[in-house]
Amino acid sequence: MNKLLFILCFQLLLTNSCFAAGLGVTGGEFLRLGVGERAIGMGGAFCSIANNVSSTYWNPAGLAQLSSRELSMMSFDYLMDISNENYSYANPLGNSGVLGFQISLLGMRDMSRDEYGTMGSFFKNEERIVSLSYASWINPNLSMGINLKTIYTKLDTDETSGFGMDIGTLYKTPVENLNLGVVIQNIETGLKYTDKKESMPLNLKTGISYTLNNVILATDVDAFIDNSINLHTGGEYTYKPMQRWNLQLSARLGYSASMGNINAISGLSSGFGLKINKFNIDYAFVPHGDLGDTKRISFTARF
């Protein structure tokens, strides 16, 4: 119980610390959408958990925890007719670490208009991120990981590309079941359009999580270079009714709060997961008020 009180107090400290920044602007907003319905259902608080193939996005160091190959697929309709697809794969290399690969696709159809508002032909705006990841244990309690990624974006006829990198660490503290995570995301070369150049949202992500029996509590704080601060906090409860079939049912709840970034996801989220042997189905629901709701589902296989 003392450990539980400690983690709850630490979460409150992280919450209070996240409201001390001003405002700014960067590009590459699509890099903030998140990957993996388990993490999304928990409000995006996954940096210090990072124990599945979606770790490629949340904290590449977490890939070191994988003991079998994982393949995950996700496709959903985002807000305003925006479609999003994600495919992730991780392959352990024995004692040499874990290699990961991820591709994310974001697209939206639009229609051109002239200066009088007359509709013309259809065109497609799209973004694409391809990541190659590697993670390994430095010692029994500390792992490190790196993402190398290419970013491509097309807005009507204007297109550009760039390179980025993420560096992460995951630390299993001496306090049993208490994990810490730190990631520097989007170290980059920038996106240069015809008339301007945009920086991708460089971010320092920190997280803490604690597991108590079948419950996980977690909090992440994102500190972006544009001075926007995002708080993510959430929890997961897992019930195992049939050990013979390795059946697990999980319920998740999360909350995200954004300061200084009106485009970021914020508010409540929820979700559930079903695991049968080596297969997972995860669902997440995120309401966005007048903009509508997003419903996301993913399928993961281990082999």
Q: Quick check: average pLDDT?
A: 80
Largest sheet features: 14 strands, antiparallel, barrel
| Helix content bin | under 10%
Q: What fraction of the residues are assigned to beta strands by DSSP?
A: over 45%
β-strand number? 16
CATH topology (level 3) name: Porin
> How does the helix and strand content classify structurally?
mainly beta
User: Which sequence of SSEs, written as H and E, runs from N to C?
Assistant: HHHEEEEEEEEEEEEEEEE
Task: Provide the CATH top-level class.
Answer: Mainly Beta
What is the strand arrangement across the widest sheet? 1-2-3-4-5-6-7-10-11-12-13-14-15-16
Q: Could you name the CATH homologous superfamily?
A: Outer membrane protein transport protein (OMPP1/FadL/TodX)
Terminal residue distance: 37 Å
Topology:
Elements: H1 2-17, H2 37-41, H3 55-58, E1 70-77, E2 83-92, E3 98-113, E4 119-139, E5 142-155, E6 158-172, E7 178-188, E8 191-192, E9 197-198, E10 203-212, E11 215-224, E12 229-242, E13 247-259, E14 267-276, E15 279-287, E16 293-302
Antiparallel strand pairs: 1-2, 1-16, 2-3, 3-4, 4-5, 5-6, 6-7, 7-10, 8-9, 10-11, 11-12, 12-13, 13-14, 14-15, 15-16
Question: Could you characterize the architecture of this molecule?
Answer:
Helices cover 8% and strands 58% of the residues. The chain is mostly beta strands and 303 residues long. It has a single domain (2-109, 118-302), classed as Outer membrane protein transport protein (OMPP1/FadL/TodX) (Porin).
